[in-house]
Known about the structure:
This protein has helices at 7-27, 32-47, 51-56, 63-67.
Amino acid sequence: MEKNMAGWDRTIRVVLAVIFLALAFSQGGAWWILGILGIIFLITSLIGFCPLYKIVGLKTNKEEETTSS
Length: 69
């Protein structure tokens, strides 16, 4: 699987995941939706691949493009 996320993108996702999970566990109610989003953000940042980016054709990881040239 080709990584399509840059380091800064992964860092932002981890920070958002922590915030979303904290809100989901502390607030309850409909905040569980943010909890699911937080889990998705955490998983995608750990593996460095975002399926949505692949569908849209977006790639924030420019390192692989420059090294293959």
